[in-house]
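Researcher: We're teaching a course module on how sequence relates to structure. For the next exercise, students receive a sequence and then see the predicted structure as tokens, so they can try to spot secondary structure elements on their own. Here is the exercise chain.
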Amino acid sequence: MTNEKNNSLVIGLFGFGVVGQGLYQVLQDVQTANATIKSICVKQKEKLRSLPQHLFTFEPDDLLNDKDINLIVELIDDADAAYQIVKRALLNGKSVVSGNKKMLAHHLDELIEIQKDNSVALLYDASACGSIPVIRNLEEYYDNDLLQSITGILNGSSNFILSRIFQDNWSYADALKHAQELGFAESNPTFDVDGYDSMYKLVILALHGFGTLVDPADVFHYGISTISDHDIRYATEKGRKIKLVAQVTKINGRRFSLFVLPKLITPEEYIYNVEDEYNGVIIEGQFYDKQFMFGKGAGAFPTGSAVLSDITAQKHHYRYEYKKLNFFDPPVVTRNINLEVYLRYHDLLDLSHFDFESISEKYAGPDYHYVIGKIKLETLYNLKNLIRKLNVFIAWTGKLDIND
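Model: And here is the predicted structure for the students to work with:
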């Protein structure tokens, strides 16, 4: 039920972790938001919290069925629970702000239809790149058919680890441990360091950039968890850094490819100097060349501010129009491209799984071996489950050949 007199928002908040607490503080400091949190639903009953107990509940229905609450803000880690919360809220006629990129990537097609049928809004700018308003920009500024590619460092945790490695000469194990101690990485860091987080964000950006709904299962993603001192030394000797990069590229106007891979970055590239927990996104168009967006991709206040931006947008009845999905002929996904990659290996049996189109460089040493060559993205995709069991590391050199 919207208060028509002052157009105020009454928020039901799910989750009071780092981002939830950041949002609460931001709302206290920004009085012009004209939004108040009425109730907060949390899971852990025994946890001590700094706010009055009457603000908290452990029952989702207390928020979802409260007629005074006209906006649900979902900021929890559990993607399955987030899906149920967001779906029920939209069906109940409540607009939603969400930051759960995994949930969104898997269910956007259904949720888009539900919010349209129920005349409510689903906003999620905070789900990709923290404080960088990349989704809103793709929706509003790049709402044409000129967009050619989106390239970015989309995960602050892995970037922080790689910064310690290349700036401070730390080992991967020490950098990961430090990231965990500072709260940048979870005790189980797989979601971040193996590229899942970046992949889910890339699926969301592909929708707003190109108008195509992509099943996350169709996207090849590979992370940094198997990086070794050999790979770090190779990159350093070549004057490069390794960054975990997500890329979506339009091909011949009819198709596009997308993947997540470590990349050997040259000093000339915009994202070479994106360090620590920062994100950087390069948007390239047919006539406007490259544009670069930079900002913190994680943390209580950067992400909380992004959530506030969605809240403010909803106050003014903003919703995504999905122009490219609704009014364009969206391109389709293809994996029929060649990538030039660096592949470090130790066992010829491991190398034998990779069907290279061509090899331009080989090295065989006493401790490790590597090859540089062209391989189809489709080949890597078909190996995606096996690769993580092999003693190898893969990095993209930046070269891409189109077969379509």
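Model: If you want an answer key for the exercise: The longest helix spans residues 101-117. The chain has two domains: 9-123, 136-297+330-402.
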